[in-house]
Please model this.
Amino acid sequence: MGETYAGAGVDIGAGEEAVERIKAKVRSTFRPEVIGDIGGFGGLFGFDAKRYKHPVLVSSTDGVGTKALVAQAAGEFTTIGVDLVAMCVDDLVCQGAEPLFFLDYIAVGKLDPDHIEQLVEGVAEGCRQAGCALIGGEMAEHPGAMEPGEFDLVGFAVGAVERDRIVTGQHIKPGDVLIGLPSPNLRSNGFSLVRRVLFDRAEKRLDEPAFAGAHHSLGEELLAPSVIYAPAVLALHRAVDVRGVAHITGGGIPGNLVRVLPHGVSAEVDRREWETPRIFTEIQTLGGIAPDEMAKVFNLGIGMIVVVPPSDAFKALDVARSHGHRAMEIGRIVKGDQRVRLVGDRG
Model:
């Protein structure tokens, strides 16, 4: 008897079942510009150029890193798709772009329709929160390269911004104010260190309390989805003079805020202005991690920083808070040589 694709480990039938299961979830993200339905060779999006005088397309791609291994160990896949969308669309808005559409790539060792359905459910939820359409994607079964149960997620987002509204950071000046939008959790950054500290070193279990006195498990804490900041940041772009935006992901505040600073200025961030979520102090204590290392790896409770002139600070806070974020002023721009300095460190 001849060889078959199924015999090589690829189940076409399971893939077809997974596609049928996710159709309604994908359609729930569609915007009026989406043309056609899922299943074509390419996603179609009728870009409305009349909305712009000189539109510029902005793109971003990212993944969820080794947070995928935590989801795999917990058998919980419904939230990590939100992380995937957040990592991409929250990059777009840093340059003033409105997220328009999103595509995902899911690689698995063995295709399980239940598993795929949960993953896409999270991606669709993230797209709904961000206001972008999920117009395409790919599911790939990789027997031999990945074990059953293993998976990886990659996303790709496209947005648009008016050319003269692109935010580059070049107009940032000494005296400008740093507005911080809080993150209550790890988002999807630093998980290689998290896993090493909590599981290898401290030998913790996902089903035990996240920390002393917690009423939720460590698994729930680690798999809590990322906040999606895109709608709030877009509202800020419309309401105030946004001079720079930094998405705080891998590299922490120092590694990301510096990316928007022009020559001649530095940033001072006051760590006393917000409360660091307990999970960060737990990781630091259990791992014996130095404060500088924590700041280089984790967001420490701030997921986005928006730079505005002092005259717009109060309005910026009001706009961010009206979109559900407990925004606060966390620092200032000063004269300097493109450095980020954390003062009043809690570590």
Observations:
- The mean pLDDT is 94.
